[in-house]
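Sat 14:20. Reprocessing the chain from the morning session after the first attempt stalled halfway. Input below, unchanged.
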Amino acid sequence: MGNPDAQALNQELRSASYLGGVEPSAKDREALQKLVGGDMRVLQWAGRMASYYPAERRAMCSGAAAPAAAGGKAEAKKGDDKKAKPAKPAKQEPAPKPAAKMVHPKVKCSRDIGGAEGSTQGIPLDQLTSRPIEWPVQKVRQTFIDFFVTKKNLPFVASSPSVPTDDPTLLFTNAGMNQFKGVFLGTEKPNSDLMKIKGAVNSQKCIRAGGKHNDLDDVGKDTYHHTFFEMLGNWSFGDYFKKEAIAWSWELLTEVYKLPKDRLYATYFEGNKELNLPPDLEAKKLWGQFLPESRILPGDMKDNFWEMGEVGPCGPCSELHYDRVGGRDAAYLVNNDDPLVIEIWNLVFMTHTRTPKGVSELPAKHVDTGMGLERIASILQDVFSNYNTDGWFKIFAAIKEVTGYPHDYHSDACPEDAVVAYRVVADHIRTITISLTDGGIPDNNGRGYVLRRIIRRAVRFGKEFLGAPLGFFSKVIPAVVAELGPFFKELQDKATIDRVTAIVYDEETAFDKTWTNGVKHFKEALKKCRDAKTNVVAGADAFILHDRYGFPIDLTIIMAEKEKCKEPFVDMKEFERIMTEAQDSSRHSMKLKQFLGTNEIDHLQKSKIPATNDDSKYIWKQRDAKIVAIVDKPNEALVQELGVLAVKKDPKAKKSDDPAAEHMGVILDETNFYYESGGQIYDTGLIKAKDGSFTVKVTKVLSMGGYVCHIGKVESGVVKAGAAVTLDVDYSRRIAVGANHTVTHQLNHSLREVLELGKNSHLEVNQKGSAVEELSMRFDFSWNEKVPTEDIAQAEKVLNATINEGRKVYSKVVPLDQASQIQGIRKMFGEKYPDPVRVVSIGKDVDELLADPANPDWKKYSVEFCGGTHLESLSDIQVATIVGEEALMKGIRRMTVLTRGPAKEALAAMEKLSKEHEEIFKKPHDAASIDDKIKSLSVHSKKIGDHTLPIVAKATIQKEIEAEIKVLYSEKKALVAKVKADALEFGTKIGEEAKASGNAAVVKAVNQWGADREALNEVCTGISKAYPEALLFITACDVAKGKGLAMTAVPKGSPKSAVDWLKAACGKGGGNAEKAQSGFTAGDEGKVIEAAAKWIQ
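Finished this time. Tokens:
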């Protein structure tokens, strides 16, 4: 800042804002109001300071004079004789103690870039990494887990993946409770492992970098926001409640971690009359056992009522806050965004559920607590910042090493920009390593876009402020593995980490390639906004930078700010509108696959309606059942009867759109319909009343809370609860789906045989996902490179050999531990398997496998955990063909396979196209037609590429065509050379004859080479060389194509004009007085020759 007074105030405000300084004086407040409008840095620090003083904050926001600080008088604005009306506060804040009684000890820190850093004990910043630490992060985490496992008898449940595999509503796992959501909602399968426990403890991998919970833009700017963090938590599923949760949290913090009791504050829910929610006086009373009333504070819906989302479980929460400073009454700083008085543990008492109709009580009371590992570690290690804890030391050291930056993070000499860059790179490499290990994929949509944005943000900061070379980011991964690997064992898998490293490196290099072009477009966008006098980058340009060049929006904002654009730097409204339009389909695919709400499931359970018996889904025949419940989806209600939905169709809607298509759901006592699960699509069919009174068309089947819901529309009649029905599954469709699922298993085994075992590779072929549908199946698997065509051919050969062999398909439900012992059994990482689990074996009876589970021969057969529907024999698949092989991401390939009818159609189409290719190639050609043949082959190759065909045959024929075109081009070159030589010779002969006869004008048609421009030009050249004084008018025609070409030439200095001559004969033409040419219709050649001869006479 240029103004020394502003600079001094800025530093003073920074100190006050972070270090618990005294109340601002009237002079400070007056200076603040003068400066905040013009200086962003002063505004930033002043805003933080003002957040400590509610009265000042309200006054600043309303533009009124600041009321008196605690115990003082208000400062009136000059010239204002009216009483200022302060802005209405969002909540009733506890009245602060009189200023005279407050104690605000000054705390010294080593650095305050976005927040205080250093030791609360005054240890120099550069000595933090070498000092002995009583509570290292690993010990803090393990102590938490051991406390609840050994002392409170809670089972340890490992962290679920940070990338959810079974929750389409989440970009990332963003809270410890995510994996238990099904338990809270009542939608978890009754026989799952989670339904067998009453409580749990763990340290959950969490990412908050997208969606509702998004900390990405704050990372680096302060000392406590992270995109990846660990959430220490303990849960109760209808077991212990407030009494135990509060007592245990106090015991752990004060008796195990030994935090000073006088620095702890608790909050409780103050109630909400509008929603008829009473204050949580029970929690307040329980805290009264440990804390004085002055440190038990009420909080509103925002701070003390936790909600999972717009709908779902919710309830009052009670937070524990810690004062890093101590020796004062900091009650007025609680929940005021003070980095020195921070929330450390949130105890959520899940007592209610929110629906579109309001808030109602849950049938069971749950507890969900969460404490950030990084935050509690900073307190136990007596440091101000999370980044000063030992969990970051290895990562910062690695960043310094790979970037070559001269200063350590914990060095006083490290400038502000570099400090921020260190934080960004360190935080982001943790997030990327964890998320990619858990199956995340960087791309341009949804979750993948967020991951790509994180990588590029880190690379940008590293290159810009640390001078990092290309490829530096991926080289920090080993440090993350060293720090987090001892607890998260999946990080210790070398093959996985090698794949993650390769992905990150590829993303870095791809970003480097697009960077130059992106910067060029940014400069053009900058010029446009300056020419338009807006000085704000257009949202459309920001979107192009995101979509075409991969620039995250925050990167564009940073660049615009650096170029001194006007705040908000980018037109975000326009950008978000375009982004919304572009990602409509992506958002649609992320919709919640939920048809029954918590209240409906609770009602069914309270009505003693048992979960649906779906054992007969594996029995392929019609069966009878009884309707136990009907869901009226538009009204979100369970009803006793429901008729045909009368709706008026939108005339603009597509013909295929049916507003009534999924307006209702039927729950039966038992079913033979397969619900969507494990990558396999659901069954469809009909539910018919046994008395013929109604029919329901089933278009989708989902399972929630153990209830299988048959979703669709009433085709006729009135559906009634209690009615006896016949279930008519569309088994012709089921056969197609079953064939594709069974072939998925056998392809998995065939790829293992060809790629993994056949090549004696150190790599493994592991399933990474699948999508089994009626017409095709997709199979995703781990492999580091494109699968060669010969390997695809071999895998397809092995696959069809087993199909022709007709191996039988066996299945049996087996205890999980017992099934896991079978040699060569295949299962997916991160997948939750029930106990007992269904084993599907192709070629060997499951009982035989279990009798000798360690037998190495079992690797010769496909054996997997699977709950899907399969055919009885591979011979029922008939035939399979691989029609696609592509990269899904680095280290992950995707194959698409067709079976039965679609496979036969693809094979027949391939045969037809092969015959067409032969016909094109066998067609004779000459110099005049060779270009047409090359074009025909090229068009045919594209046609083959556009069809869904067997990939091996497709690649083979396209390779043949490529070689044929190459040969034809070589042949064309020779033919053209010969034609030109013949044409030159022919022209020379004409010129000699004309000269000998004394004819000054040569008007002649030369058609033996068709309308070949080069040949005609050579004819003219030959005539002119042999007879320089001649006036030429030569034509050539291709009658088959209807094209004609005329060329004229006259000697230099001739009174005749070549272009005038051409126009007189053809009616058009281009050139000059000496040379000219024009096209004409082949049928007019005689007229053109006649007119040319007449004009020259």
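The radius of gyration is 38 Å.
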